[in-house]
Every structure is written in structure tokens, then in C-alpha cells.
Amino acid sequence: MDGYGGLLRVEQQPEGSTRRTNPFYTDRGAWVGFGIHENKTVTGFCGPYDLDGRAWLSSALLQIGTAPAGEKNLLSRDSSCYYPDRLWMRLRGEDMEVEQTLKQVSSTTAILHIKNKSSKELWTYGNLNQGQWTLAGNTLWSKLPNGELLLLSFEAGVKVTFDQGKYQAHLEKADTEIVLIHYANPITLEKALVTAKTAVEQSKTLSMQHTARWVNYISSNTRPELSMEEHRIMVKSMMTLMSNWRSAKKELKHDGVVPSHVADYFVGFWAWDSWKHAVALAQIDPALAKDQVRAMFDFQDSVGMIADCIYTDHRENNYRDSKPPLAAWAVNAIYEADHDLSFVREMYDKLVLYHEWWFRYRDHNKNGICEYGATDGTLEAAKWESGMDNAIRYDSTQMLLNEKGAWSMDQESVELSAYLELERKYLMHFAELLGVPFRGKKESYLAMDYFFDQERGYYFDRKLNGALIPCFGPEGWSPLWTGLATVPQAEAVVRVMQDTAKFASFVPFPTAALDNAKFMDRGYWRGPIWLDQVYFAIAGLRKYGYQKEADMYTKQVFERLEGLSGNGPIHENYEARTGKRLKAPHFSWSAAHLFLLYKELKTSPQKK
């Protein structure tokens, strides 16, 4: 565990006018996060930060001093680090050394362990930005302006005093645990106080269990034949996913993973993000993977549609469009990880209804080939439904009315057809596992020949009038990832993918061919690389026997993404020609696919 310190910077400046884009330390679905203050004179971890309300509850609620607040403190920060399971800080003073370890052991509970290596006594103190303290036994509690509860609970015998939003506690023991509890959901004060007291009594056990969970996460996924550099990328990916984990809150009925807690606009769950997160989480924490899938299906409507995104407040949920149908892929990955047939049974009818929804509401001419679309008739929402929001292939797209509340693009999508065919195969497999009749088609919907351009050697979308849309994009390798390409077709597509004038860029497999006149290094889905599409490309190569090439491209991704091998966050996308970081940092689906690339790497590049 100690070998994975410093993979991510969590330095923050709570007093600044704008928040740093560094991630917070948070875990287990907590709705608060912590960081390390940029000011080294601050002797406690900064926070908690309200990840939903986007506000600091305190700049540093648990500072450590050699005297009560306001008097001279002989301690200053010597060093600090973010490890997968904890934040750590060392303070030094004359003949003094104090270590602090903070662990988020559950969705509500963080434990601060203070180890005083001198004979001098310590105090802890801090301020709430809003609210007042009330003392009950050895627990301070405050009802925050948003109605949520915050509690600080101390060991028996610790002397605690307070004045409105300020407190201080005298720590006479060499080793002390302080429990910080934040309830994002309603709870009675009586129950919260009992929970806080129990957490203090069981703090050592809770701390050990938390670290053991992370040891298991890492050890069960580490591949000894790979290099330490590769292990660190895998662990950073897991840290990214786990710090974006949010527990059920208000109208979100199950836990899930937000795209990025660093970007203020990503505080909900998105559909195809969720499917991708779940595939990786299946190998890390299958229970969380299941909840990630359940969270989206909790909002499935009566005709089968899955919302684009969902929030703690249902009024923000987006039903203007859905997202590409990869849910069955996620359910299959979870089943392969833990062989829990009950989860397949739980999801099966919902998956079938979702599958059928596409053919009822997104097949304009009823020829069995679907299009992306929208419920409000806008091209904007239809592009969102594809997930490739501003792709070049949509520059001349028009919308067509199917029926009230259902519109389609005037082009049939190659990757949507590939995804639906893959989904059909998974549903047939699930029906066989469950011993139930499959009510869908038992034969393939169509051969991928329909989308294949023999002359150009690539797959393209088609207009409803039948004309191909010869725009080279990542949709063209979807038949390889889904295993639907013929071998000659796959060989032709691979030649295009390996063309340095098209997709074999510095970081391979951009969202538009390099030689497209509309290619833009920073254009949204018009040039940068998104790691989900990179993963589909590399996994498609593996599926057709190009193992050496797949390993080579994986190595390029690992080595060339800016900051990945250092302490930079994993970003939403990157420049294909430079590897420079672009949009949202600390991005979950990027982390999920880096994790999968690590797990599927066949040979390790030269170990250092």
C-alpha cells in the first residue's frame, strides 16, 4: 500500500476565490471530501468539503496545536501524502513529532488517528463556516444550513469546549481517534449520536477493515508479470473510481459513480458512463458495480427508456435522450466476475424492455436498423444520445418524427447497430442461464456488411436513403470490438486504424481521422481521444488476433498521456497529437478503461 503514495495531488486552497481542480480524498460513497492545505502552516487536513453543495463546511475542521486555539503553535507541517486508503500528514516542532492519518471508512464516517510521539499534550480545534455546535456527551453536533448533520465525536475523557461554530478539545493521550460523521440523508439525532459513539469505540477495527478492503482491491487485481509503472496506473484508476463513488441520497436510490467530482456539472449519474464504470468495478467491487447499474434502472420509464442522466433531485433528470445500449455488457461483466445469477434475474426483464424500446422508438422506417434520436425533436439531444456529442458525422444530420415524443436522426448508426446486436446475444445468453424463453429475435438483426465500404475498407453510418456517410470515426471499429466483423473486413479496418495519417497518432485512436479537414486538436469529439473509444479499438484488435499491436498501443497510451505516470489526474480526454490533458480531470470512465487496458495487457513492455 505504501508504494502507491503520491499518485494524485490533493492540495487545496479553501480560502481562495476559486477551487483548485485537484481531486479530494473521499471514499465509500461519502458526500464530503478532504484535502491537504496548500499553506504548510495549516496543521490539519482541509475540509470537509460538501461535494454536492460545492462548499467548504470548514477550511480545516481538525487542526492540531501544542496549545489552545489562538495561542502560539509550536508545530508545523513537515510532510504529507495521499495513499489509496488514507490521507497522511506529519507535523514537527522542537522535540516533537505528530502523525495524522485520515480514513473515510464508510459513506458517513471518517476517522482521524493522531499519534503523538512526544510527552507534550496536544489540542485540536477548528471552525464551521456556517452553523453552531451543540455538545451531547463527548460528541459535538451541528445541523447544517442544508439540513444535513455533521458530528465530531471524541474518546471518553477528552475535554471539549465550544462557542457557536468554534470548538477545541484537549488531547492528553499519545494515541487518539476522532470520528467525523456527515449524514447526507435524514436521520434522527438520537440515532446519529449512538452511531457516533459506536464508531469511536470501534474506530481501530473500522480502520483496519478499511485498509484491508484496499489491500484486497489492489492485490486481487495486480498482475505480477507487469511493471510497477503499470501497477501504479491501475491503482490510480481505482482511486479515481472510488473517490467518485457517491452513496444513495435523496432521490438516488442506489450508490453509483459520478463522472468527476472535480467538475461541478458532473454531480449525477450518466447512463453509458455507468455501464462503463460497472464493467471495471465488477473486478474491483461487484456490489458497487451492481448498484451502479441499478441506480440507472431505478429511473427506467414505463416503455423501457433509460434516462441520459439522473440526480438527487429528479427535476434535473434528463429524458430528452437516452444513451448507447451497453447495459447488458455491464451485467454480463458483473456475472462473469461473481457468477451471481440472482442479479441477472433481477435485471433481465428490465434489459429486455430497454432493448425493445430502441426498435419501437428509434427505427424510423421500421427496417430493423435503429438510429439515435430524441424525445424533443432536437438534434442536440439526439447527438447526446449517441454519446459523441459533436461528432463530424452529424454535421449534415436532420431529425425525423417517428411518433409523438419520439424522433430519429436521418442516419442509421453503425455502432448502435453493433451494440444492439451484442446486446441481443447477451440477452439470449441470460435467458439460457435463467432457463426462460427468449422473446426476441434468435437470428442476427443484420450483417455488418450493410455499413461496410469495400472501397475505403471501413465501416460508416448510412443515411436513410441508403447513402454511406464517409466520415472516418471511432464508430468504424465498433464491429471489431463487438466481434461482428468478418475477418477480411477486420483486416481492412485494422489497416485504416494503423494508418499514421488517420488513427495511429501519438496517442492512438482519436475521435476523428487526422486527415479530416474538420479535425480539431481540442474539438469536442472532433479530434481528441476519449479512452472508452481507445479501449474499444484496442480490445477489438485483441479480438481479431492482433495481440502484439494491442500491447504496443496500450504502452503508448500508458506512456504518452500527460501526467498519467506522475501525480496528474486522469482526464476526460487528451490531445491525440501531443497527449496533453483537456476536459474534466479525475474522470471515471477514463479511469475505468485504463483499468481494463491494464487487466487485458498480454505482455509487459520492458520493465525498468
UniProtKB/TrEMBL annotation:
Keyword tRNA processing among record annotations: no
Quote the protein name from its UniProt record. Alpha-glucosidase
Q: Which family does it belong to?
A: Belongs to the glycosyl hydrolase 63 family.
Pfam families attached here? MGH1-like_GH (PF22422)
Domain annotation Mannosylglycerate hydrolase MGH1-like glycoside hydrolase: ranges: 270-590
Keywords, sorted A to Z: Glycosidase, Hydrolase
> Per its UniProt record, what InterPro entries does this chain match?
6-hairpin_glycosidase_sf (IPR008928), 6hp_glycosidase-like_sf (IPR012341), Glycoside_hydrolase_63 (IPR004888), MGH1-like_GH (IPR054491)
Region Disordered, annotated ranges: 1-22
SUPFAM superfamilies the UniProt entry points to: Six-hairpin glycosidases
Question: Which domain of life does the protein's organism represent?
Answer: Bacteria
